[in-house]
Amino acid sequence: MYMLETEGVIIRVEPDYLETESEPDENRYIWSYTVEIENSGAAPVQLMTREWRITDAKGRTRVVKGEGVIGEKPVIAPGECFRYTSGAPLPTPSGFMSGQYEMRRADGAVFNAAIPSFALDSPLMPATLH
């Protein structure tokens, strides 16, 4: 699991390679990722927008931006968590994702909560020693 905290918002991500949905012969590799957003601050926060940077093994990056997540703009109370699962395709058997959520506090202040960079490695990717 990958984790990062920004201004009292803790973001945890766990990716999972979906072998049954992937088609390596067609250069189509699919991952799901589960995100947990925890508010360890003293006031509620609302997730307003998302921005993902998805990079494949050849260094090609695409940016995905949008309102909320999975059709929601959740308000997360102090001590509470919001959890969701989504997915991402790649044309290569490995890559990585990172990004940020725009969060708004109850007083109207806005900040960007960083999403930790996480690896998308399929079992089809040969292991290498560094």
UniProtKB/TrEMBL annotation:
- From the Swiss-Prot or TrEMBL record, give the protein name: Protein ApaG
* InterPro entries for the chain: ApaG_domain (IPR007474), ApaG_sf (IPR036767), Uncharacterised_ApaG (IPR023065)
Q: Which PANTHER family match?
A: F-BOX ONLY PROTEIN 3, POLYMERASE DELTA-INTERACTING PROTEIN 2
Q: What Gene3D superfamilies does this protein map onto?
A: ApaG domain
The organism's superkingdom is given as: Bacteria
Gene behind the chain: apaG
Q: Where is the ApaG domain?
A: 3-127
* Listed PROSITE patterns: APAG
